[in-house]
Structure formats: C-alpha cells, structure tokens
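Are you able to produce any protein sequence you like plus the matching backbone structure tokens because I've never seen that pairing?
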Amino acid sequence: MKNTIVTKQDRVLAALQNGENLTGKQIEARFGVGNARATVSALRMKGFAIYANESVDTKGRVKNKYRLGTPSRKVVAAGYRALAKASA
C-alpha cells in the first residue's frame, strides 16, 4: 500500500473537483487554510482553471465563490505563447 500525504491544497482541489463552489472564508474554515487566495493562486499555478464568480447572498452582500472550470481557448493559447517565449 502506498503512503500518500494529503495536503490542504489537495483537499481544496478535491472539493472543487466534486463540483462545490466555495467562498474564501469557507475554504479557510473547512480546510484550515490560512490564506484562501494564496491557496487558490497556488492551484492555478499548477494548471487548474479555478474561477472566482461573484454572488450575492440573502442579505445583499457580494461574495466571490471559487469553482473549477474549463479554460477558454484564449487562456490556453496565452499559456502556449508564454511557454514559447520562455523557451526561445
């Protein structure tokens, strides 16, 4: 049996892959993350298309909810251009 360590980032990613939409506060409270924005940024840098969508709660407050999505063709093209510049 392989021994694997499940990180906080892994747990956040698993929740997003299960279709959950999470606010920064939910990520911090549920997974013990100190800075949800930094965690989301790190996952993005690993290649996951995580989007922040604004939503309004029942009291009229605007909140960002993170979700995992599919990148647009423009985003993929920009990534390939950046890789091409880096290797030139």
